[in-house]
Design a protein that fits this description.
The complex is a heterodimer of chains A (113) and B (110). Chain A is mainly beta. Chain A is 0% helix and 57% strand. Chain B has no helices and eleven strands. The chains are: A mainly beta (113), B mainly beta (110).
Chain lengths: 113, 110
């Protein structure tokens, strides 16, 4: 199974809502990633988990809170978002370490109203 | 901050023609990877070339790497309408991060 799944596919939320994005992989990968992608731009790294521990936080605002409950699951908890946070949120996984190819999920299209 | 620049930003060709896109980067790398993204979807890994390799092939794809010029190119031969997508180069270094270039949008007309 070389698939990374993400739910939901689409999410519309108000600025006072709390929601979560979910990501799952069953490839045995021990590194998982969250990226944010705006239209016509490349993905921007947000967080990296390696062996279920947060290893990289790219100075992401605290209204985004990642969680890695186990080696297969990755969540992104959202609270008090701003309209400019509307974007495609991509999850990816890979073998841990440097330079391995990453497997991406289809993304969650988030709209903040 | 983004590592790479890609050109052209957009490319439109006829089916059957070859498509070449270029990527330049700024710092030392362990490897360089190319990804494809269909509109609004996730990225798909195409090919990885290590810093000590100069050329690599995979099916209709040919990638070159020139570390002295800090540049790479992706050639898609005999293009098909299904190749229409955005293509991103991404560099991997000792930081453990994958840094993406700005991307090239390819349109292949049937």
């Amino acid at each position: 199974d070389t698939e990374v799944t993400q739910t939901p596919k689409h999410l519309v939320m108000g600025m006072t809502n709390k929601k979560s994005l979910k990501c799952e992989q069953h490839m045995g990968h021990r590194a998982m990633y969250w990226y944010k992608q705006k239209a016509k731009k490349p993905p921007e790294l947000m967080f990296v988990y390696s062996y279920e521990k947060l290893s990289i936080n790219e100075s992401v605002p605290s209204r985004f809170s990642p969680e890695c409950p186990n080696s297969s699951l990755l969540n992104l908890h959202l609270h008090a978002l701003q309209p400019e946070d509307s974007a495609l949120y991509l999850c990816a996984s890979s073998q841990p370490g440097q330079g391995y190819e990453q497997y991406f999920g289809p993304g969650t299209r988030l709209t903040v109203t | 901050s983004q590592q790479g620049e890609e050109d052209p930003q957009a490319l439109s060709i006829q089916e059957g023609e070859n498509a070449t896109m270029n990527c330049s980067y700024k710092t030392s790398i362990n490897n360089l990877q190319w990804y494809r993204q269909n509109s609004g979807r996730g990225l798909v890994h195409l090919i990885l070339i290590r810093s000590n390799e100069r050329e690599k092939h995979s099916g209709r794809l040919r990638v070159t790497l020139d570390t002295s010029k800090k540049s790479s190119s992706l050639l898609i031969t005999a293009s098909r309408a299904a190749d229409t997508a955005s293509y991103f180069c991404a560099t991997s270094s000792n930081t453990g991060k994958l840094i993406f270039g700005q991307g090239t949008t390819l349109q292949v007309k049937p």
